[in-house]
TrEMBL record:
Pfam families: zf-B_box, zf-C3HC4_4
Regions annotated as coiled coil: none
Record domain B box-type: where: 148-188
Key words, A-Z: Metal-binding, Zinc, Zinc-finger
Residues of the RING-type domain: 15-58
GO molecular function terms noted in the UniProt entry: zinc ion binding
Name of the protein this chain belongs to: FinTRIM family, member 67
Length: 203
């Protein structure tokens, strides 16, 4: 008998609450599956009403259903996870001349952004916390660069975000309070704009 070829995608095995691959998958009475912790936390918020619902189809259950780990689904997700790892497109691997992700272990991915707050470069996957977590909200991201130390003040370890016209050099905001106090300064981005306008006028 010929084997049927089935194509499984990550989305089919994602929890609709956390949007990640299912962890400790459980199927609730309506047939929808969730991570054990996700549905527990969801139902904990409904405890006061005593009626429990499915976040997807809104079917209600009383009393609260007892949850059991779906071992077969857990195996499928595990196989899907291991299948996803090696299929990372080779074009994401860092090659000669590319900036490598500082977090990747083993095969290094190509960095897409560098963070002046962390002084590290990140691939798409490891950059996600900078977009999702409030802890990284004030970090300044730039195009991936392998020369991060050159963008940081050697005296204060702060990003060089200010241009001192008096001394014609990039400095950090703390420098404006110390050795560059009272100097003619502008933001580095304003200086870049000035240079671009000057070039256009020459042309």
């Amino acid at each position: 008998m010929a084997e049927a070829s089935v194509t499984l995608t990550e989305n089919q095995f994602s929890c609709s609450i956390c949007l990640d691959l299912l962890k400790d998958p459980v199927a609730i009475p309506c047939g929808h599956s969730y991570c054990m912790n996700c549905i527990k936390n969801f139902w904990d918020k409904e405890d006061h009403a005593g009626v429990y619902s499915c976040p997807q189809c809104r079917q209600t259950f009383t009393p609260r259903p007892v949850l059991g780990r779906n071992t077969m689904l857990a195996e499928v997700v595990k196989k899907l996870k291991t299948g996803l790892q090696p299929t990372t497109p080779a074009d994401h691997d860092a090659g000669p001349g590319d900036v490598e992700c500082d977090v990747c272990t083993g095969r290094k991915q190509k960095a897409v952004k560098s963070c002046l707050g962390c002084l590290a470069s990140y691939c798409e996957t490891h950059l996600q916390p900078h977009y999702e977590s409030p802890a990284f909200k004030k970090h300044k991201l730039t195009d991936a660069t392998g020369h991060l130390q050159e963008k940081v003040c050697s005296n204060h370890d702060k990003p060089l975000e200010v241009y001192c016209r008096t001394d014609q050099q990039c400095i950090c905001y703390l420098c404006t309070m110390d050795e560059h106090r009272g100097h003619d300064t502008v933001s580095a981005s304003a200086r870049v704009a000035e240079i671009q306008v000057g070039r256009e006028l020459v042309i």
